Amino acid sequence: MSMDRRHFFALSTATAAGAAGLPSGTAHAAEQTGATSDTTTAATPDDAAGGTTLPGELTLWYPRPASEWLEALPIGNGRLGAMVFGGTDTERLQLNEDTVWAGGPYDPANPQGLSNLPEIRRRVFAGEWGDAQALIDSTFMGNPLSELPYQTVGDLRLTFSSQGEVSDYRRELDIDSATTSVRYTQSGVTYRREIIASHPDQVIALRLTADTPGSISFTAAFDSPQSVTGSSPDRITIAIDGTGQTRSGITGQVRFRALARACAEGGTVGSEDGKLTVAGADSATLLVSIGTSYTDFGNPTGDHTARAAAPLNAASDVPFTTLRKRHTDDYRRLFRRVTLDLGSTDAAKLPTDERVKNFASASDPQLVSLHYQFGRYLLISCSRPGTQPANLQGIWNDLLSPPWSCRYTININTEMNYWPAPVTNLLECWEPVFDMLADLSVSGARTARTQYGARGWVAHHNVDGWRGTAPCDQAFYGTWPTGGAWLATSIWDHYLFTGDKEALRKRYPVLRGAVLFFLDTLVTDPSSGHLVTCPSMSPEHAHHPDASVCAGPTMDNQILRDVFDGFVIASELLGEDADMRAEARTVRGKLPPMKIGAQGQLQEWQEDWDAIAPEQNHRHISHLYGLHPSNQITKRGTPELFAAARKTMEQRGDAGTGWSLAWKINFWARLLEGDRSFKLLGDLLTPERTAPNLFDLHPPFQIDGNFGATSGITEWLLQSHAGELHLLPALPPALPDGRIHGLVARGGFEVDLTWSDAALADCRLRSRIGTRAVVRATTRLKVIAQGKPVQTDHPEPDLTSFDTVPGHTYRLTPSDGPAGLG
Question: CA-to-CA distance for 82 and 301, rounded, in angstroms?
């Protein structure tokens, strides 16, 4: 059964026509990777037209150990994370587990809020913004005021007995196998370490070998900034036990246990008083496991000791070669779905940190590929089905009070973390977001009821491990009720990429609740008669000195159009809520339209305040949500708004924090200006914005810039938001030749592209669910499937449309080009 194209591409007008299942092999892939049913098995790189990435091209490497945290190399299995320093006298593994949050379950909803809401709204509509913010600060903010931080477990430190000068040192992270390694020679002995974070076996494993028997000797011990107790549970194991901190008056309740066990070939192993000793071994494997008592956001009473012990005991009976193979097979099943080749120069031979320093002045297209795939590596490593979502630092954090508490900041950062998930063929990695949405529909219902007297659910600009949903921090930043709605748009977007009707049905109540809240809380703007959010704000941006609170900012209206449209079509498709659907359509029609200001810019607020806003180059450009990630502003569909969005981008300039630059890379790609977008990637790939280990710097480190850049590079090569698959829409002139395999487009298509001299040479389109393909390129295309020409329509000279069959592959080439390309 084919999927009606309108379902995927025209949210405001589509009518459901049914959904098809995925091609055969999906169930097997899901069983092997822990994926949900929306996951399809991609071809391996060997199946890609144009071949594979060569060994070593996907490696970060350095000629010295890490001297600081931002030089260490990250590994992770979704739940467990480690930063590997690679020292020769000592090795440090800084450890995280994704449920170690300070405090415990709490409800931050402020019961004073509801009675003060009418006066807050009156002050906003009267233009008394400072007074409105003051009242919000005193009566409407959550309790506690700040949400709780994500925290480190601590470190495992190894101290080696070998002495002498070190030579031939190399430290690397191979992101094709998700393996960190260290190699060096000392006193005539060559030592090697390999470190993996295994998803199948749920342990971190460190393998130590040497080319001379009996050379492996070290001690190992945990330490932590947490209050912990060390012990030796048995003769080959050490442990620490601790509890997440008490913060903001909320008692720490997440208990955790970290275990490390040594298994050696030759020599001796001993454990006493929390210290592990390996002496004279030929080789050794060190296994690390961490368990916590966190079961869900309302239950921190699980058995952390059993959760730590079970995977450790199971892995202890498995040879390292088997652990490594399970890990690599599992990881590559995800990672190798997409390959990217942009060419290479001699710059690729340099250590990674030197390449970042030189990128602006040296031709290094392969660093673009490496940075792109590093983003995919990080997403696989910090977000798997059943884990917590990636927070502001993924899972990698060495502090008890990290910047911005490592929360889920949902006014851009968390959403940006997941932009690469569907388009770079990592749909499984998106699953934790949907689990968190289910949680927020529960905790956010309390906030909606208590503070707004509303049905449904709401979440503001931050969420933590306990799913706090009330306004937090202060009114200037926290008075934004649309964060949960933005996250909820993922539910419909997932359907656009997959056609998975059962997943949509499962998540539909969450989408419905997000809409229900705004049906209850939108109010009439007395000056315009439109229905608006109030109080709200354009995230983190003042419209007058020290005043951000307003009514109906542009971004809110854009988000609400998307979440309302998704709900309307989903409810029709599923045969649910006819009356509410009609109401949602009516309310959507009363939202304020986007406006063009006196400077020709897209207005950020209902009033034309852009010219007087205190920060003309503010890092947030929230009102361009309609350009990206939404599809409400397009070159052909809304040319006047498209021009206004471009004017806004020119006004804001190219400066910005790491994540802000990453969003601008996506904006300029949507504006179809690859040269400008590439320039901003160059601004990101500098030591000021990219750490030696390729972590994005706000500064400090925030992982969203990594993910946003990966998304932006994808947008250069393939866009599918405007009702068509647009091939090479924003290809930068600096990258005239290349190929990519395995991208995913809305409508359920998997796409391979080859280009030469800045023109499309070959495209392979695999149809997952039988949607009609509408493809835009710079030239008319001819289409072949199963060795035969496919009937096509050409409604425009550069538009090619044809029916597809689920599971079939279609080859598209320029109609005036040679037939044998690719």
Answer: 25
| Partners of 532 in the β-ladder | 523
Q: Which tens digit of pLDDT belongs to each residue from 512-563?
A: 999 999 999 999 999 999 999 999 999 999 999 999 999 999 999 999 999 9
Tally of structural domains, the chain: 3
Contact 408, 463 (CB under 8 A): yes
User: What is the Cα–Cα distance from 417 to 708, expressed in whole angstroms?
Assistant: 7
The CATH number of residue 405's host domain is 1.50.10.10
- Which tokens go with 323? 């652990």
The answer to whether 148 and 101 are in contact (CB under 8 A) is: yes
pLDDT at 11 over 50: no
| 599 and 551 in a common domain | yes
Do 89 and 162 fall into the same domain?
A: yes
Element holding 739 (H helix, E strand): strand 738-745
Instruction: Judge whether 558 and 630 are in contact, CB under 8 Å.
Output: yes
Q: Grade residue 816 by pLDDT with cuts at 50, 70 and 90.
A: confident
Q: How far apart are alpha carbons 335 and 376 in whole angstroms?
A: 7
Tell me the pLDDT band of 8, cut-offs 50, 70 and 90. very low
pLDDT value at residue 50: 36
Please list, in sequence order, all residues whose beta carbon lies within 8 angstroms of the beta carbon of residue 31, skipping any fewer than 6 positions away.
none
Q: Is residue 43 over pLDDT 50?
A: no
Q: What is the C-alpha separation between 282 and 505, in angstroms, rounded? A: 56
- Can you give the pLDDT at residue 57? 87
For the full predicted model, state whether its pTM sits above 0.90. yes
721 within domain boundaries: no
For residue 800, the number of C-alpha atoms closer than 13 Å in the C-beta half-sphere is 23
* Beta strand extents in 317-366 (DSSP E only): 339-341
Claim to verify: residue 193 and residue 64 sit in the same structural domain:
yes
**End residue of a domain, out of 653, 687, 708:** 653
**Do 558 and 471 share a structural domain?**
yes
Residues 263 and 138 in one domain: no
Is 702 contained in some domain? no
Cα–Cα distance for residue pair 256/244, rounded to 1 Å: 8
Q: What pLDDT sits at residue 24?
A: 25
Retrieve residue 32's tokens.
């092997």
**Whether residue 498 is found in the same domain as residue 416:** yes
The C-alpha atoms of residue 513 and residue 576 are separated, in whole angstroms, by 13
Within 10 A of 312 (CB to CB), how many other CB atoms are there?
22
How far is Cα 340 from Cα 616, in angstroms, rounded to an integer? 37
- Tell me if the bond preceding 553 is cis, omega within 30° of 0: no
**Could you give the CA distance from residue 196 to residue 73 in angstroms, rounded to a whole number?**
11
In a domain, 86, yes or no: yes
**Rounded to whole angstroms, how far apart are CA atoms 147 and 392?**
14
Find the domain containing 77 and state its range. 59-101+149-336
Decide which of 653, 673, 698 is a domain's last residue.
Answer: 653
Q: What's the CA gap between 476 and 460, in Å, rounded?
A: 12
Q: Cβ distance 672 to 627 under 8 Å? A: no
CA angle 329, 334, 335 (to 5 degrees): 90
Predicted confidence at residue 56, as pLDDT, reads 64
Instruction: Using DSSP, state whether 533 is helix, strand or coil.
Output: coil
Is there a single domain that holds both residue 479 and residue 547? yes
Find all residues with CB under 8 Å of 549, minimum gap 6, and list them: 124, 129, 132, 133, 136, 475, 476, 479, 535, 536, 537
Residue 616 class from Cβ within 10 Å (0-12 exposed, 13-18 middle, 19+ buried)?
Answer: exposed
504 domain-assigned = yes
Between CA 729 and CA 776 the distance in angstroms is 9
Contacts of 304 (CB under 8 A, 6+ apart): 255, 256, 257, 291, 292, 293
Tell me the pairing of strands 268-272 and 179-186: unpaired
The pair of structure tokens assigned to 418 is: 């997941």
Indicate if 14 and 155 belong to the same structural domain.
Answer: no
Tens-digit pLDDT profile for residues 713-755: 999 999 999 999 999 999 999 999 999 999 999 999 999 999 9
